[in-house]
Write a structure and sequence with these properties.
Layout (H helix, E strand, L loop, with lengths): L2 H4 L14 H16 L5 H13 L3 H8 L10 H7 L23 E5 L2 E4 L4 E2 L2 E7 L2 E5 L4 E2 L3 E9 L2 E6 L4 E4 L2 E3 L2 E4 L12 E9 L2 E6 L19
């Protein structure tokens, strides 16, 4: 064998190689982690998600995670400054005491409805009122102003639905008069560093329903249909 044959290698540098579906899925998983940690907001996540599924090469995929730390690792400077003091709270570490300040600590629905969902910040005390109406508070992608937050619900001939992810510590203290505060499912073991959500208030001819659901799944993450063909 000649020296030329011994030293033959790929004619194209690695970044120009075609990416596989598995490569794209790995990038999506890192983007999902970054969303949960508060490194990306929902708009950035959706933009990069679409780009991930339309990327054809390693080079295109690499640009989507270039500004993110490696999976499970903090940036080198942060790790060197205080690895021993790093919180052991996993993805919750970036979601408590930060995020966009809450625009309002009150939501009111009178013969109407309100929603709080996606990347929003739950203040230390939040008041939700539904009178002949309904409200939805989805905490699965929310930030929390404090480790313990209180959601005070007043439901009069109306309903309020609160959705939390598994692992959150939920304490339901509300009073029902011809109504109910209903928590049908357990949140499971409390995750390290997870926030505590205290639900209190009054339900009169109405109801407050606390549901436990996994965070929303996105295409390619195993939750629901794969929508890559629609992108």
């Amino acid at each position: 064998m000649t020296d030329e044959g011994q030293h033959q290698g790929p004619q194209k540098p690695l970044p120009e190689l075609r990416a596989s579906d598995a490569d794209r899925d790995r990038v999506v998983e890192r983007l999902r982690d970054a969303l949960a940690e508060g490194r990306l907001d929902m708009e950035e996540f959706e933009e990069r998600l679409e780009s991930a599924y339309t990327s054809r090469t390693y080079a295109q995929l690499e640009t989507l995670t270039r500004d993110l730390p490696a999976a499970g690792a903090a940036p080198a400077g942060v790790a060197a400054a205080g690895a021993a003091a790093a919180p052991a709270a996993g993805s919750w570490a970036g979601r408590i005491g930060g995020g966009v300040p809450a625009a309002s600590a009150t939501a009111v629905a009178v013969m109407s409805g309100f929603q709080r969902r996606g990347n929003w910040t739950v203040p230390g005390r939040f008041n939700a009122v539904a009178f002949w109406g309904g409200g939805e508070l989805d905490l699965r992608e929310a930030h929390f102003a404090e480790r313990e937050v209180v959601i005070n619900c007043i439901a009069i001939m109306g309903g309020i639905e609160i959705t939390v992810p598994p692992g959150v510590d939920v304490d339901v203290r509300g009073i029902g008069i011809m109504g109910a505060f209903d928590q049908r499912h357990s949140t499971g073991p409390v995750a390290p560093g997870a926030p505590r959500v205290v639900v209190t208030g009054l339900a009169f001819w109405g109801g407050v329903d606390i549901k436990v659901k996994e965070p929303k799944r996105y295409p390619g993450l195993g939750g629901g249909p794969d929508l890559r063909k629609e992108l």
